[in-house]
Amino acid sequence: MSQLRVTYLLTSLAIVLMPQYAAAHDGFTARDPSQKIEKQVGSLREKMATAQAAGVPAEALQSARFVYLAGVAWRNLAITVCFWNGSKATQDLVMKLANEWTQYGAITFSAKTNGSYNVCQDASSANIRVSLDDGDTRDLYVNQEDNRKGNWSYLGNVDLSTYLVTLNLPDVVRLRTRDPGWTHHAIRHEFGHALGLEHEHQRAECAGWFNFDEIAKDTGWTVDYAKTQIGTFPDSDLAGLGTVGGYDKNSIMQYNFAKNWLLTKPGETNPCIRPDIEDLSDKDKAGIRALYPPVEAMPGPHAGLRSAKGKEGEPVQSRPTSPEDIAKEREKLNQIQATLQAKALQRSGDAEANAKAVHAAAALQDVITSLDQVESMMRPTTGSTPPAPNP
Ligand SMILES: [Zn+2]
Question: What is the Cβ-side half-sphere exposure of residue 39, based on CA atoms within 13 angstroms?
Answer without folding.
Answer: 7
